[in-house]
Amino acid sequence: MPCPQKEICGSCSWSHIPYDVQLKQKLADINGSFAIKKLDLTCDSIIPSPRVEHYRNRMDFAIDFEGRVGLKEKGKWWRVIDGHSCFLAMERIDELFGNVRSWAKESEITCWDRKANVGLLRYAVIRATTLGETMINIITSVPKDENETFKVRPSLKCLDELTNATTLVWTQNSTITDVSFGDKLETISGVGFINETIAGVNYRISPQAFFQTNSYTAPLLLDTVRQFCGDLHDKTLLDLYCGTGFFSVALASDAKKTVGVELSSEAIEDAKINARLNSVEVEYHDAKTEDFDWGSVGADVVILDPPRSGMHDRALQDVLRVLPQTIVYVSCNPKNFAREMVLIQQHYRVEKMHAIDMFPHTPHVELVTRLVKITR
To answer: Which of 53, 332, 340, 351 is catalytic?
Structure first.
């Protein structure tokens, strides 16, 4: 078993299962979700990940009040497994984790007590790309005075020298919420972002941006979505829940017009930068999908890539009201997709469906479906 603390951590809860069996089980779980909802659907194709170890390009390591650094214990949000990294993380992340842990223990900066809400060090988010670039984002509480601030900054400079990461960022979280992001960012070294290339498309990844977790399988996901969208040369493409433009930037050169909608203003700024990096034109809107009048766009093809919770009820009703000709639904939660398909199937037929294993050794899977409007 690759992970010696699997039962305590739980990040790789399926690592004891042979990979070919994992793939079969994921298909069975998808089809089981369809059966529960009495849907006449079957997914019989799953694309495996080219890598089943060291594929994750981002890891969020917690730091507790006693200076332990690592992943959290399963089911215990307050307890950190000291020194525990993950065999799913890219090798460079694992190397940097050791440096960050040593620094945190020797830095003399106080560590955050999640129950008492005192102390500074909260998280170390480490990212890497297939281009060899790395980012360390240290998340702290807000220093209580200038003395604490002056103490943190030179310590982070020492961390930079120790790790030689491409860029090092200091993020301050002014809330008591236990999350690995914040509201004030300062670049300590480098340019404050890293770059990745997926299937010939260039992306800039900022400290708090979402990016596809598995850079090795992401090209397969992108290629599947491109195939399911079909010929776009005279069509308008709408990318809902577009994030930082992973799909819209890659497909914009294929379409007559491309529009993206995303609730995060930070993500939209990243998407605009990514469009410029690739010399494509995309019309981006900073708005909630359920609040935006996307029906006025006149889209021929709509990409739906909602969060794990699925579409907002109003967004689903908008889909059933507007009824675009073609929908490419990218779901990271097939159970919610099945729930929504109970209504969607009244107006659409499933033309193609593939599962893509973006998350080996976990129960999670991506499901991509091409839906075509039924002609009455």
So the answer is: 332
